[in-house]
Structures are given as structure tokens and as C-alpha cells.
């Protein structure tokens, strides 16, 4: 019997089979797929920095000096001056004492959660938290309690009922990756203080996007110094790959000693670190990036709403267009691609049944013309599929 084939057939029958798209160009506002140029509306390269000349040149210089692979884990032979410099600058950017880089945001969540809590503790988690948080919670062996998305009354109820645990950790995305909305962090911090809980915020989609200097959701809400554990990723606005944790000196020292996904994995290559470092410096000296990003977000949101699409009320560079039905969602995504827009269809199990959506993301590097063309295509395709009038 072919087990794999059976499982694949099941996925196909349920309409949940996934396929990879193949890009043949950089993550620019316009990309090449199947020899055809389409407008990219699905990249997390929010500030468009992955193609910035100054950053590419910094990476090339680092490759010339250090070569390609890092050659070992950070605690053996893979720790370069560049890793430490990036951690110092990330801590400054996030206004914390220290920071630690992991190989992905996913690994940061796994390593941190499995280190800071254990079987005597409880994790209190927003229903829509990212999969890597959920997997980290499972790995930690802590009791795992979930509150309805953004619902403070439910969160408080759980806090009231959970005083028997050694540690209580509230964990939330800063910007929710599929809805694009923000966690109510000021209220969460208030509750955490009232019930002596720790707070961990995963700001993968806020970093480089929110706050006046782009430091993220915590800067946006003015909560510097009030969040115990901040997670970020280098793979989105910072245009490279990797994840990081920012927090107190003691937290970072503990993670350096105990986080298994940090200890037992080869360090990120110097070139990757150089890309993040150059991006971090670049975004701090180019405030016009934020202006362009928000201009594009607002142009696209207003335009889609004027066309009659239903948007979720997001506050980030993530704009979810609600369709509901999974087949219709994938049909729209395919038709958009044929007409020249790459926009991802998101369906269960990533989102709840009946809430399938097109999740579009904009970049600072999109021009007004790009956005206008996108809107023309959404108008045409939406009418053809009878999604709008
Ligand atoms: N947290 C959130 C909220 C995310 O959206 C993602 C990536 N999609 C991650 C963590 C994982 O980060 P990375 O891609 O760097 O592994």
C-alpha cells in the first residue's frame, strides 16, 4: 500500500492540496513567474529592501571577506563579529538590554518557549497566534490555554483561574499574520501586571512596519520596557532570513545556554547576517520608506473597498480580502495571477472554515501606478467571478 499517496489523495479530495509557485526574479514589486511579469502582492519584503543596491553591495563585501557558510553552531565555531554586532543593534532598535539571533523566527519561538516555561507553568495564547508559537507551546510541555482572538475578558478569566501555576506566560502576535490586526497590547500589559504574568510578543509583521522609527507594535503603543520577551524575524521587513529575541540581559544569557534550537543548529551565514544588519541600518536612515508603505496600504485599501470588496479591519501592511468559500478564494487567486497579480489565497487549516481570503501585502517599493494597475485587475476579475458588481 502506498501510504503517502493515500494521504495525498485525501488532501486533494478535501481541496487542501498545496502547490509551490516558482519565482524567476527578485522579490520586487513586479516579479517573473513562468516567464511572465506579474505584480507582486504577496511578499513580506515590506520595505522592498531585499533588492536595495546599497544592501546588496554590503552583502557582497561580506561574502568576499568571510565566504559562504558559517561552519558551525554559534557556541562552537560559527560565531562571527557580525552576529554580535547585529544582536547589539537589534537590542538598541528594540530598546532592550540584549538580543539573540536564531536561524528563523520559527526556531526563535520554539527555542524561547521551550526554555522559559515547562510542565509546572501555563501559557495563555491568543487563538490566532502563529503556528510556530503553537508548536513552541507544545514543545514546552506547559499547560496550554487559548483565549478567543483579542478578547480581554476571556484572557482575564483564564488569568483568574490559573494562579496555581509556577509561571504564567501570555503570548500573542503583535500583528496577526492572517488578519493584519494588532493585539490590544496596552490592555494585555495591564492584565499581566494585575495577575503577575509574563508577556511575550511575536512582532514578525510589526518590525520595520509600525512605530515612528519602525521598531514595531511595542513602539507603536509606547510600551517599551513593559514586554518581557520580544520575538522578531529578519525575514520580512529586514529582507534576509533568521529570527531574534530581544529582552533583558539575563533572559538572553539563559537562552544562549539553554535554547536547543539556538544551540544545536549551524549559525546563519555571515552574508545573511550582513543583509539584516545593512537593512536595519538602512531603514533607520530612510524614513521615507514608511511614508511610501503607508501611502500604498491606504491607496490599496480604499480602492478595494470602493470596488465593493469586504476587507478585514487591519492596521498593518497585511490586507485580508474576505471571500469565505475556499474554492472561490482559490479561483480568484488563480484568475488574478492570469491577469497579472500574484496574491495568495488563504484557506483552512491556516484560517477557520468559512473565512478563506485573499491575503495581500504591499511594499514600500510599489509605485502608485502598480497599485492602480492592481485595482484595475481586481475590478475586472471580481466582476467576471461575480464577487463584486
Ligand atoms: N511569527 C509570525 C507571526 C510569522 O508570521 C512568521 C512567519 N510567517 C514567523 C513567526 C516565522 O518566522 P520565519 O519565517 O522567520 O521562520
From TrEMBL:
<dbReference type="InterPro" id="IPR001917">
    <property type="entry name" value="Aminotrans_II_pyridoxalP_BS"/>
</dbReference>
<feature type="modified residue" description="N6-(pyridoxal phosphate)lysine">
    <location>
        <position position="236"/>
    </location>
</feature>
<dbReference type="InterPro" id="IPR004839">
    <property type="entry name" value="Aminotransferase_I/II_large"/>
</dbReference>
<dbReference type="GO" id="GO:0008710">
    <property type="term" value="F:8-amino-7-oxononanoate synthase activity"/>
</dbReference>
<comment type="similarity">
    <text>Belongs to the class-II pyridoxal-phosphate-dependent aminotransferase family. BioF subfamily.</text>
</comment>
<dbReference type="InterPro" id="IPR004723">
    <property type="entry name" value="AONS_Archaea/Proteobacteria"/>
</dbReference>
<dbReference type="InterPro" id="IPR015422">
    <property type="entry name" value="PyrdxlP-dep_Trfase_small"/>
</dbReference>
<dbReference type="InterPro" id="IPR050087">
    <property type="entry name" value="AON_synthase_class-II"/>
</dbReference>
<feature type="domain" description="Aminotransferase class I/classII large">
    <location>
        <begin position="37"/>
        <end position="376"/>
    </location>
</feature>
<dbReference type="GO" id="GO:0030170">
    <property type="term" value="F:pyridoxal phosphate binding"/>
</dbReference>
<comment type="pathway">
    <text>Cofactor biosynthesis; biotin biosynthesis.</text>
</comment>
<keyword id="KW-0808">Transferase</keyword>
<keyword id="KW-0093">Biotin biosynthesis</keyword>
<dbReference type="GO" id="GO:0009102">
    <property type="term" value="P:biotin biosynthetic process"/>
</dbReference>
<dbReference type="InterPro" id="IPR015424">
    <property type="entry name" value="PyrdxlP-dep_Trfase"/>
</dbReference>
<protein>
    <recommendedName>
        <fullName>8-amino-7-ketopelargonate synthase</fullName>
        <ecNumber>2.3.1.47</ecNumber>
    </recommendedName>
</protein>
<comment type="function">
    <text>Catalyzes the decarboxylative condensation of pimeloyl-[acyl-carrier protein] and L-alanine to produce 8-amino-7-oxononanoate (AON), [acyl-carrier protein], and carbon dioxide.</text>
</comment>
<comment type="subunit">
    <text>Homodimer.</text>
</comment>
<keyword id="KW-0663">Pyridoxal phosphate</keyword>
<dbReference type="Pfam" id="PF00155">
    <property type="entry name" value="Aminotran_1_2"/>
</dbReference>
<dbReference type="InterPro" id="IPR015421">
    <property type="entry name" value="PyrdxlP-dep_Trfase_major"/>
</dbReference>
Amino acid at each position: 500500500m502506498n501510504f503517502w499517496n493515500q494521504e495525498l489523495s485525501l488532501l486533494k479530495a478535501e481541496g487542501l492540496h498545496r502547490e509551490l509557485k516558482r519565482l524567476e526574479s527578485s522579490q520586487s514589486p513586479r516579479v517573473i513567474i513562468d516567464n511572465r511579469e506579474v505584480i507582486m502582492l504577496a511578499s513580506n519584503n515590506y520595505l522592498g529592501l531585499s533588492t536595495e543596491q546599497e544592501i546588496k553591495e554590503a552583502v557582497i563585501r561580506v561574502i568576499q571577506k568571510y565566504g559562504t557558510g558559517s561552519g558551525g553552531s554559534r557556541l562552537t565555531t560559527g560565531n562571527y563579529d557580525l552576529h554580535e554586532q547585529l544582536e547589539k543593534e537589534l537590542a538598541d532598535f528594540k530598546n532592550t538590554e540584549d538580543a539573540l539571533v536564531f536561524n528563523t523566527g520559527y526556531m526563535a519561538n520554539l527555542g524561547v518557549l521551550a526554555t522559559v516555561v515547562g510542565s509546572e507553568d501555563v501559557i495563555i495564547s491568543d487563538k490566532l497566534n502563529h503556528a510556530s508559537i503553537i508548536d513552541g507551546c507544545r514543545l514546552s510541555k506547559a499547560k496550554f490555554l487559548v483565549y478567543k482572538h483579542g478578547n480581554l475578558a476571556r484572557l482575564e478569566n483564564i488569568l483568574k483561574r490559573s494562579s496555581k501555576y509556577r509561571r504564567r506566560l501570555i503570548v500573542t502576535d503583535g500583528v496577526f499574520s492572517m488578519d493584519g490586526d494588532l493585539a490590544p497590547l496596552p490592555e494585555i500589559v495591564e492584565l499581566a501586571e494585575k495577575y503577575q504574568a509574563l508577556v511575550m510578543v511575536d512582532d514578525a509583521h510589526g518590525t520595520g512596519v509600525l512605530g515612528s522609527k519602525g521598531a514595531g507594535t511595542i513602539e507603536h503603543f509606547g510600551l517599551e520596557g513593559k514586554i518581557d520577551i520580544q520575538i522578531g524575524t529578519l525575514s520580512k521587513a529586514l529582507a534576509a532570513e533568521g529570527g531574534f529575541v530581544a529582552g533583558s540581559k539575563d533572559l538572553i544569557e539563559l537562552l544562549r545556554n539553554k535554547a536547543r534550537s539556538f544551540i544545536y543548529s549551524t549559525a546563519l551565514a555571515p552574508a545573511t547576517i550582513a543583509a539584516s544588519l545593512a537593512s536595519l541600518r538602512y531603514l533607520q536612515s530612510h524614513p521615507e520608506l514608511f511614508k511610501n508603505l503607508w501611502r500604498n496600504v491606504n491607496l490599496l485599501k480604499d480602492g478595494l473597498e470602493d470596488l465593493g470588496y469586504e476587507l478585514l479591519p487591519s492596521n498593518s501592511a497585511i490586507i485580508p480580502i474576505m471571500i469565505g468559500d475556499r474554492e472561490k478564494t482559490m479561483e480568484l487567486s488563480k484568475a488574478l495571477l492570469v491577469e497579472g497579480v500574484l496574491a495568495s489565497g488563504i484557506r483552512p487549516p491556516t484560517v477557520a472554515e468559512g473565512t478563506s481570503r485573499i491575503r495581500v501585502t504591499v511594499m514600500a517599493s510599489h509605485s502608485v501606478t502598480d497599485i492602480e494597475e492592481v485595482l484595475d485587475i481586481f475590478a475586472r476579475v471580481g466582476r467576471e467571478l461575480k464577487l463584486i458588481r
